[in-house]
Amino acid sequence: MAPPDRSPDPYHSAATGVDSEFGHVGEIAAWVEWLLHPEEHHYDRMIILGDGTKVESRGNLPIKDNSIDPNGPLVPDPVKPTEYYPFESVIEGCYIEQFFDPALALSGQHLDGEYCDLSKVFKGLCDTSWKNDDWIGKLSGQFEDLRQVWEGSAGLRAGEFLGAIDDFMKDFNRIAVELAAVLLEYGGVIDAARKSLNNAMGKLVDAFHRKFYANENPLEKVLIKALVAISGAALTYVSGGTAAAAWAAGMTAVIDKTLDSGGPEIGGTTWRKLVDDYFVAQAEILRLVRAEIDRLNDDLTRLAGRLVDMPKLPG
Question: What does the DSSP 8-state code read for residue 16?
Answer without folding.
Answer: T
